[in-house]
Write a structure and sequence with these properties.
410 residues; alpha+beta; Butyryl-Coa Dehydrogenase, subunit A, domain 1; Butyryl-CoA Dehydrogenase, subunit A, domain 2; 3-stranded mixed beta sheet; 12 helices; glutaryl-CoA dehydrogenase (ETF); Acyl-CoA_Oxase/DH_mid-dom_sf
Length: 410
Amino acid sequence: MSQAERAGQDGSFLGPVDLTGLDSLFSSGEKELALQVRRFVDEVIRPDIADWYDEAVFPAEIIPELGRLGVLGMHLEGYGCPGRTAVEYGLAAQELEAGDSGLRTFVSVQGSLAMSAIHRHGSEEQKNEWLPRMAKGEAIGCFGLTEPTAGSDPASMLTYARQGAHGDWILNGSKRWIGLANLADVAIIWAQTAEHGGGRGIRGFVVPTDTPGFTATPIRQKLSMRASVQCEITLDEVRLPASAILPSDSAIGLKGPFACLNEARYGIIWGVMGAARDSFNAVLDYSATRTQFGTPLGGFQLTQAKLADMAVAINKGYLLAHQIGRTKDADPTKLTPAMISTGKLDNCRVAIGIARDSRQMLGGNGITLEHSPLRHANNLESVRTYEGTDEVHQLTIGRTLTGLSAFTTG
């Protein structure tokens, strides 16, 4: 039975994990959108995800289908974008990640990072050139911030953009762990524009990936996010017109990329709950059919205790995501970095714990791709790391609590 069919049978669109009436928090339209995305995942993703993961293949052929589904740049208004609410985007994210974190990551990189950067910081020409095609999945974007030596500390990036005599820009440097870069038609590249910028001279550039000097090389032999693609980018005298810079004052310094990162982090808060819910459903089904010592696993006290703890944790995670999503929809100015960090930190920790516990409850069978929890657990190692490690989010929350920054020791 598919999860969509199961949800209808159990009453709540979230299925048997809904112990606290989460269903009542969402409108009929919000639930129908979630179920529409779930049907797509059930029909298009689940039949092949084990093979894609095993063979380390990202199914690029589904990109136009995601465009037709309306999940690319889902939260953005105008320029051919769907213009959905934050909560609707969150519900879509958790359904996509119930299929695989790599699928939700694609949607996040495309919409929350690359498209958001152009939508928030770009010129009208940049918006009209790229956003309508990206919303349809006809053009793919990537977001180049992280570097081989600058992960949690982007202010120390070494990629440098110098301005030529005629106002053009020349970029040199490298980026690492950049999703979609080898598939992308356009890259948003962040670079220092002052020799001693210290973060204040960082600017964003819209870089067509067919520009001479731009090279994207996929990172191989990954143990996580195998049905996804991450790359190293090399920028060797990449020459761009003056119009390539993101012109908005909001894009000056690290506030430009950080605004986009917060959009991506918001999607993660919801997304990982989909992976947790899928892991829970997998082991709940297994516990009903797997018999040991003459008794279904679900009849043992230890199994029930673990299932109860998982379900309670998932309910709390959805309540946290819902609170943050409703706040974002009501007044985005009240969505603080501490709120985003709270959701990303705790929901990632909860989700990876549930996926690991679910794998354990599946016994030896749990290490095969016949079951989803270990695949989810491996993927969540990446999700927990990118868009801010646990430590980054702990220090963001700590700064809010104490009024003191502990990001540097100097």
